[in-house]
Design a protein that fits this description.
Strand order of the largest sheet: 1-2-3-4
Keywords: Signal
InterPro entries: PepSY
Helix content: 25-40%
Distance between the termini: 44 Å
Pfam families: PepSY_2 (PF13670)
Protein name: PepSY domain-containing protein
């Protein structure tokens, strides 16, 4: 076996550190990507509804489910969809029934 260059070692260490950082970020978001932020940091349900509507959904109902907002919606084609939204960022993190 030959020597590993200093540059190769540094690249491997950087790649490993990057993978650890990504894993830590994903773990901090918790189940479904909604995290565990205090409710004081959450957007209001009205704001979540408005965010869903700007994404092109007709939002019929918003409720809290497993630390996420669950939006009961219809898409542009009229098909029903249940979306899971991060209550702090407003990012859609899944749909009910996704595995």
């Amino acid at each position: 076996m030959g020597k590993i260059s200093t540059f190769a070692c540094a690249a491997l260490l950087a790649a490993g550190a990057g993978a650890l950082a990504v894993g830590a970020a994903q773990a901090s978001e918790g189940e479904g990507g909604c995290g565990n932020a205090p409710k004081a940091q959450w957007m209001s349900q009205d704001a979540a509804k408005a965010k869903g509507e700007t994404m092109g959904y007709e939002v019929r109902r918003v409720k809290v489910e497993k630390g996420c907002y669950e939006l009961y919606t219809k898409d542009k084609a009229g098909k029903r969809a249940e979306l899971l939204m991060n209550p702090v960022s407003g990012k859609i993190v899944g749909a009910d029934g996704d595995d």
